[in-house]
Every structure is written in C-alpha cells, then in structure tokens.
Design a protein that fits this description.
The chain is mainly α and 488 residues long. Among the domains are: 97 residues, no CATH class; 159 residues, no CATH class. It is built from 25 helices and four strands. The chain has a two-stranded antiparallel sheet. A hairpin with a 2-residue loop joins β1 and β2. α20 runs antiparallel to α21 and α22 packs across α23. It starts with 8 loop residues before the first helix and ends with a helix.
Amino acid sequence: MPAPLTMNEDHVRHLLRRTGFGVSRKDWKKAQSLVGESPAAGADYVINLKRKKIRLKGEENEDLHNSWVRHLIKGKTPFQDKVVLFWHDHFATSASVVDEVAAMKLHVRTHYDFALGNFKEYCKAINTDPAMMIFLDTQLNNKDIPNENYGRELCELFTLGVCDLNGVENYTQEDIVQIARAFTGWRVDFDEAYFEPEEHDYNSEFLAQRGPKNIFVNAHGFGPSGAAFDAQGEGEPEIDEVIEIIFSHLDSDGENTVARRTAYRLLEYFAYAAPDKNVVDDVVSNSAFVGSWEIEDLIRAILVHDAFWETNEQQPFSASTRKSVKHPIDYVVGTMRTTNMKAKGRDLEFPGGEYLRLIDHLSNMGQIIGEPPSVFGWDWEKGWISSSTLLARYAFARDIANARESGRFRPEKLIDRGLSDPGQIVDAVLAALGLNGQFSPAERQIFIDYATDDGAVTELDLGDPDVRNIKLNGLFSMAMQTTAYQLH
C-alpha cells in the first residue's frame, strides 16, 4: 500500500498507534486536525511531540519496572517512550544482572537523553554507561587478559551486525581482539565510570605481543593498514575512536553499514519484519542519517515511506498483508491508555479478574521491561506468541472486562451511550479499539450474535447497568482477544 496523499481518520490513528501506545481520547483530540494532511505533516507532528527526562523511583528492580510502566501509562511523551523501548531492546541490559538500581536508573536516563538524538554520540555514551559496563564485563577488562564481551556486542548487536544485507561478514575475530584492547582499564564505581591507566593496554608494553592497534585491515574501505584506533592518542580517547571508525565502515556494496543496519532494525520496529534491501536503501537515501547520524531524521524517513503505511489495511487483512505482532508492553500500555484503565497502588495491582499485578501480566506475556532475557534482547514477532503467552493476553483482556466491579473500566465512556442498535454498538466498540474495518461480515456477526444472544434481543439498553457490565464489557474483552488486536 503506497503512502496516502492525504491522511483520513484511519491513517492518523495508525500513525499514533505505531509511534505511541494505542490512541487515547486525549491523543486523538490533539491529533485529529491531521485528517486531510499529508504523511509528511503527520511525521512532523509526531517528531515534534513533547519530550522530557524520566525520573524513576524506588530502590529495588521491581520498583524501577513499576515506575517505568506507570510513566508509560500516564506519560505525555508516547513517541519518545516508544523509541526509548526500541533502544532498550537494542542496547539490552538486564537489571537483575547489573544488580545496581542507581546504575540502571542512569542507564534508562541515557536512553531518554539520546533516543532521538545523535546515534554516534549515543554509542559513545553507551561505551561508558555503568550498567552496560557491568552487564558486559567492561569493568573486568584488563591489560593482561582483555575481555572481548563488550567489543563483540558493540560490533555484532549495536552497530554493524555479524553480516551485512548480502550475508557477507562485517568483522573478524581479530577485529574483536583488537577492539577489546581499547576498552581495557575502564572501571565502574557504583554509577560512575572512570579510566584506570594502570590497567590499560599501551603499545609500550604490548606492541610486540599484540601488534598495532588497527582494525578492519584491508577490508570495509580502510585499505591494507586498516584503521588505527590510537590515532587520537592512547588511553581514554581510544574507545571514542573505535566508534568513529565503525561509523565509517562500508559493507560489500560499498554502502555505510551502520546506516543500513540501523534503518533495517527501525523499519522492523515501526513497520514489519525483514524489510527488503531496496526499502532500507530508500529510507537511508531519503534521510541525512549518513553523516548527521540524527536518529529522528531516519525515523521521519520511515514514517513517510510506503513500508510504514503498508501495514495499515483498512479492510480485513489477508495472509499477504505485512503485519507486526504487538510487543507485550505495547499491548498492555496501549490497551490501558486507549480504555483509560488505571492500575492500583505502588505495585500496580490490576483491579479485576485474578487481580494480578501488571508485572505479573507482563511476565506471563514474556516481557518485563528492565529485564531483557539476554544481550540479544527479546525475540520479536512469532517469538511473542505461544500457547501460554497468547492465553496470558486473553487473561489480561478478561481482567480488564472484570474490572467493572472496581469501577476502573468504564466502557460506556468510550462509545456513544445513546446507541441501541447492536450492529452500531459493535462497530463503536471496534472503532474505539482501532479495529474498524478489520473484520469480515461473518466475523462481525459473531460479535452481534454475542451481544444479542444469537438474535434473541433486537436492542441493547446501555443505560441498564447489567447490559453494560455483561454485554458491553464482554464485547470489549472479545475484541481485545482477536488476532487483529494482537497485530499492528
């Protein structure tokens, strides 16, 4: 599907859902003026949304999680938050491994500082991020036995990827060995990084044993001597120089490797899995990312590209429609923002059904933010869906409907309470959840049959609390359990 010339209401809601979490009434009220505007205007609107620093509270890892989730639900910076969660997965760091809450708070603040800023400077900041240094053992990296963990993930996951888009390897084991030398001597004192010269690998001591500090020798556009990461001096400057070199790395097509890989990953996040190389190159060439390294510029190029709009089918989607499975945090936060649901208390207890805490719901779905399962982050798309995690999503939808007893879920405030025709009520429920047009007539009829007891009732009185608490709540629960609602 090509990008629309002008956006209709469905287009605007698609833009808000993919760049935020659901579409709350407040979000829609602010953005509905975009109807009739171009995708470029929509991209500018999103990119210019308010941004702010985050202040996480608490002294335990669970406190950090709950504070962050509370911010996502109540916050006024959904686009910034959505991009931060991408980088949290990209630079995956686990609070339980780090085991220093102060360092993790600083780590999350670093994401908020750089998520839409300069990617090269972001990578330099991650080099000395205390939580990352603990997580990937930089603080154990010493001149006698250089530790390769961080250098390997810097290349494999953060910047280059193991192979380029043609399947050609981007670095060698010798490159990792050399990069590890640059990071020797860096240490952490609680939540502060510092350089210890006595533990650093200097040429004066190790040149004969380990050779010159060069990487990418006769490869990736660097010539027979490669690139020297001590060119700006040995010691502290070396880790920044490594980043400068990596950002000049060329792939087997002679294209900038960092730009291509970053665009590829962001396209997967905002559009769909495994984008074609030509789509990646379109996005890169239509931005000024190579050279400027400004992340927001690259994202803007994605938001105006056909690939972003290809997932926005305004009719029941087919097997060929390129869709993306919602991350659990997106499913939960988006649902709560859209339905204006509120969790209870410091522990974010859910006021309905089994009365689980939100952290338990999210754990059952396979994602606790602050706790990615490994340095590789989470498995996306099909990795989110199994028999147990899908049942967990259904349980969350059920518990929202059951929150009527606490008065926390008020679906009658999400649709026109004056409606009585069952078909119109079903359509209003689906529209409130962003699902209008996503079901065939036969699928839509299933909702109507539920609402009318298979046709026994011809009208629904939404002024009757029993009708609201059973039928209306049930329609919302059913809709949130559909395949369409699990997908972007």
